[in-house]
Amino acid sequence: APAPDEGGSDAAAPPLLGALGPDERFDFVMSNPPFYESHAEAAARPNPHTQREATAHELVTAGGEVGFVGQLLTESQGACGRVR
Questions:
Q1: Above 50 in pLDDT, residue 2?
Q2: Which of 8, 22, 30, 65 is such that its CA lies 20 to 30 A from the CA of 54?
Q3: Residue 8: per-residue pLDDT
Q4: Among candidates 55, 14, 59, which has minimal Cα distance to 32?
């Protein structure tokens, strides 16, 4: 994956399984987008009603918001006994 300054995420761990410890169980997962596919996309779509306080790593991910949610769904299937 490209580095954040190239428009992608360099996340070392998957978003859900990276946060889930070996003996932990989740009943609920909540995420707070926006997630953009590139820094250029984030800069081109400012929201004048909110102040964006996020690191580049928090804003940009491969596939944007749809890719992030798809990754959460895929990971949830693999951890179905630990995430309800």
A1: no
A2: 22
A3: 45
A4: 59
